[in-house]
Design a protein that fits this description.
Blueprint: E1 4-8, E2 11-15, H1 23-33, E3 36-39, H2 50-61, E4 71-77, H3 84-93, E5 96-101, H4 121-130, E6 134-136, H5 150-165, E7 171-173, H6 179-187, E8 192-196, H7 198-202, H8 205-209, H9 226-236, E9 243-245, H10 254-257, H11 272-282, H12 289-301, E10 309-318, E11 323-324, E12 337-338, E13 346-351
Parallel strand pairs: 2-3, 3-4, 4-5, 5-6, 6-7, 7-8, 8-9
Antiparallel strand pairs: 1-10, 10-13, 11-12
Helix pairs in contact: 3-4
The protein binds N-carbamoyl-L-aspartate and zinc ion (ZN).
Length: about 350
């Protein structure tokens, strides 16, 4: 077993950084590990214009630590009303890298999402023309579709027809959770890739539900059957260029998670690359960690591979019980606490120098 592994600096191709006084702590965790990150636009209100993205980018850059050259890559939130002109403006801006499609009601802050994808066809046609990627939260939201089957039904009802209508549209199928998604991405010649989270590689629905319900393991798309977890592990560690790292780290205050109707999202940015190393080690595929974390995503987005290097060492450390959520250090009640994944437990990999 290697004691350390050195890879080109990785990127996080799916990240929630939120806004306001929690931004600084979240950016610090990501900037310690990743050179770049695709920043999700599901704020309240959502980031729907280049101007809003520029202002959000400024707020993020203002809290990047001095010793870091972390680069946020911005996205715009697709709505029923997004115009082809907005797509054109985004492409011109250079700092907006993609659009994010949330089916209305699918997840946290998705009320303004797309009600019928056909309404977005003029904007999507412009994305195809300009080579702007469409990032998709792939879940059907119809009330009669079982929550564990929302991804597979989405593939049939929305994704396949979309690929047929726009054969050259660059698509990232975000945070895939099923063998159906793996099989679709592997089998099609469409320019489509998929991100996979560390938590879906390390866990399945038993972790969330056996022995008691664990709200900190609840995210969307929800953890699935172990067989799906195995399919994701196989895909991520295969070395295939169609799969790359996207943490979907999605922080919520402790009191919003530990409640009768807890919100969806796991926080993993405190240990993101370390958790992926753990998953790849378990699969005995550490040699493919670099392709998944540092090469495949950059290639898909048409960006250079980072020249910097990152070394991970196999050394255990204790995850804190919580992190301060926001800058008000005087208040450490549950509305100002962030519970990280594996709080109070050990992680086997560590960033060199930490
Ligand atoms: C995300 C969030 O909290 O913003 N939640 C989650 O469970 N992943 C939204 C999302 O990506 O679905
Ligand atoms: Zn997300």
């Amino acid at each position: 077993m290697p004691k350390s592994i050195t890879i080109h600096a990785p990127d996080d191709w799916h990240l929630h950084l939120r806004d306001g006084d929690v931004l600084k702590g979240l950016v610090a965790h990501t900037a310690e590990r990743f050179k770049r990150a695709i920043v999700m636009p599901n704020l309240v209100p959502p980031i729907t214009s280049v101007e809003m993205a520029a202002e959000y980018l400024d707020r993020i850059l203002a809290v990047v630590p001095d010793n870091s050259d972390f680069e946020p890559l911005m996205t715009l939130y697709l709505t029923d009303n997004t115009t082809a002109q907005t797509v054109f403006n985004a492409h011109q801006s250079c700092f907006v890298k993609a659009f994010k499609l949330y089916p209305a009601g699918a997840t946290t802050n998705s009320d303004a999402g797309v009600s019928d994808i056909k309404k977005c066809y003029p904007a999507i046609a412009e994305m195809q023309k300009l080579g702007v990627p469409l990032l998709i939260h792939g879940e059907i939201t119809d009330a009669d579709i079982d929550i564990f089957e929302r991804e597979q039904v989405f593939i049939e009802r929305v994704l396949k027809p979309l690929c047929e209508d726009f054969p050259e549209l660059k698509i990232v199928f975000e945070h895939i959770t099923t063998s159906f998604a793996v099989d679709f991405v592997n089998s099609t010649s469409h320019p489509i890739a998929a991100t996979i989270t560390a938590h879906h590689l390390l866990m399945n629905r038993n972790h969330m539900l056996v022995g008691g319900i664990r709200p900190h393991y609840y995210c969307l798309p929800v953890l699935k059957h172990q067989q799906h977890q195995q399919a994701l592990i196989k895909a991520a560690t295969s070395g295939s260029e169609k799969f790359f790292l996207g943490t979907d780290s999605a922080p919520h205050a402790q009191n919003k998670k530990e409640t009768a109707c807890g919100c969806a999202g796991m926080y993993t940015s405190h240990a993101a690359i370390e958790l992926y190393a753990e998953a790849f080690e378990r699969a005995d595929k550490l040699e493919n960690l670099e392709a998944f974390s540092s090469l495949n995503g950059a290639k898909f987005y048409g960006l250079p591979v980072n020249s910097e290097k990152l070394t991970l060492v196999r050394e255990s450390w204790d995850v804190p019980e919580y992190y301060q959520f926001g800058t008000n250090e005087a208040d450490n009640t549950s509305s100002h606490r962030l519970i990280p994944l594996f709080a109070g437990e050990q992680i086997n990999w560590k960033i060199n120098g930490n």
